[in-house]
Design goal:
Helices cover 12% and strands 34% of the residues. By secondary structure, it is mainly beta. The strands form three sheets. The protein has a four-stranded antiparallel beta sheet, with no helix packed on it. It is elongated, with a radius of gyration of 23 Å. The protein starts with 14 loop residues before the first helix and ends in a 14-residue tail after the last strand.
């Protein structure tokens, strides 16, 4: 996301600068080989539960941890690694040269704070085709105090 609009009513053009910054953002993880990233999630509220669906392509479920930091905050975190040995950018390989390596490796983390207490004991999670799906039931509402009549 850019803090400066990409179009101006001016003779001065910043297009090359913005292109350079975009390319630097895409390339910056390649220098160290690892980078933190933030997976994208869809969140829905239903009558009795919340559902979350997040993109974690290429991340095995063994590398994902899900826990609660408090009664209403869910923490999803883990790491991704390349499953093959790859040369670094610019390194010569047999019959060619690596031009660009965009796949990132590193750690990820997301926190979700629900607007009401949830039932932590009955959360269900599954992973299929790189999509992490969670069903988070809402906690049953506390019963209102019942007035006891004395006979």
């Amino acid at each position: 996301m850019s803090l400066v609009p990409r179009s101006f009513d001016s003779d001065l053009t910043f297009t090359p600068l913005f292109r350079f910054l975009d390319e630097f953002n895409n390339f910056s993880g390649g220098l160290t080989g690892t980078q933190a990233f933030t997976p994208k999630f869809d969140i829905q509220e239903h009558k009795h539960w919340f559902s979350l669906h997040g993109e974690l392509p290429g991340v095995p479920k063994e590398n994902v941890e899900i826990d609660f930091t408090d009664p209403q905050t869910l923490h999803i975190h883990g790491k991704t690694e390349k499953s093959y040995e790859s040369p670094k950018e610019g390194e010569d390989i047999e019959g060619g040269k690596i031009w660009r390596s965009e796949r990132k490796t590193g750690e990820f983390s997301r926190m979700f704070n629900f607007p009401q207490p949830v039932d932590q004991e009955h959360v269900k999670a599954s992973m299929k085709n790189g999509i992490l799906s969670l069903s988070v039931p809402k906690a049953k509402k506390e019963q209102a105090h019942k007035k006891i009549t004395i006979y």
